[in-house]
TrEMBL record:
It comes from the Bacteria. It is found in: Cell membrane. The chain crosses the membrane at residues 13-33, 40-62, 128-151, 207-225. Keywords: Cell membrane, Membrane, Transmembrane, Transmembrane helix, Transport. Belongs to the AzlC family. This is Branched-chain amino acid ABC transporter permease. It comes from Arcobacter arenosus.
Length: 229
């Protein structure tokens, strides 16, 4: 089989992602249909959007009937980190040719982590290895979310509290960021702004406002943050 070595290597490396994406994708599918949306929206979103945290956030956007401008701004801020991921991989993807658009599209946190922490096997055709790794990861999310949506559509059970899975995801990411940064100031800023926005800002504008205010404060105290970093 052509590219068999690349496929085998990519699958082996992607197994930990399969464990996480399968479960979290299943939760997304269940949550989506619990709000009376059609099951087929889960595979469509997972195929063309493929942004785990943003897909969870999108459900809330739908429910509060947020405007397109609000959705666009919040989506940009939520996925802004991907721009920095891409910049650090420009050299790796430079000669990937027709595979490059998909490699850019499928660059999630987990895929980026694998690409930057694992050493490349010189015997592999690297760009095809990157492609299969990204494709395997997306397939896990796609299958998990689709299965969750189908199961949720046909088996009725209590999904109360399932929406907390997104909060739990961000808590884990926040803890990991704190361990890496070891500077409490950005986290205090985030908590302060979130509380203020929760009290004074309407729910459909809270996310955009809190992100904007956080950025303003972070830039304001940038020097202090760098000195403590």
């Amino acid at each position: 089989m052509r590219y068999e070595r690349e496929i085998r290597a990519a699958f082996k490396v992607s197994i930990p992602v399969m464990m996480g994406y399968g479960v979290l994708g299943f939760a997304f599918g269940l949550l989506l249909v619990s709000f009376n949306y059609s099951w087929y929206l889960a595979p469509i979103m997972s195929l063309f959007i493929y942004a785990g945290a943003l897909q969870f956030v999108a459900i809330n956007f739908f429910n509060v009937k947020a405007g397109l401008v609000d959705i666009a701004i919040a989506s940009w801020f939520v996925n802004l980190r991907q721009s920095f991921y891409g910049l650090s991989l420009l050299k790796r993807f430079k000669k990937s040719g027709k595979l490059k658009p998909y490699l850019i599209f499928a660059l999630t946190d987990e895929t980026y982590a694998l690409l930057t922490t694992l050493k490349d096997d010189e015997n592999l055709k690297k760009h095809w290895y990157y492609f299969f790794l990204a494709a395997f990861n997306q397939s896990y999310w796609f299958l998990g979310s689709t299965l969750g949506a189908i199961v949720g559509s046909n088996i009725k059970f209590n999904t109360a509290g399932l929406e907390f899975s997104l909060t739990a995801l961000f808590v884990v990411l926040c803890v990991e960021q704190y361990k890496s940064l070891k500077n409490p100031i950005p986290f205090f800023i985030g908590a302060f702004v979130s509380i203020i926005s929760l009290i004074f800002i309407p729910s459909d504008k809270m996310l955009v406002v809190s992100i904007f205010l956080s950025l303003v404060l972070l830039f304001t105290f940038r020097r202090k943050l760098e000195d403590n970093g």
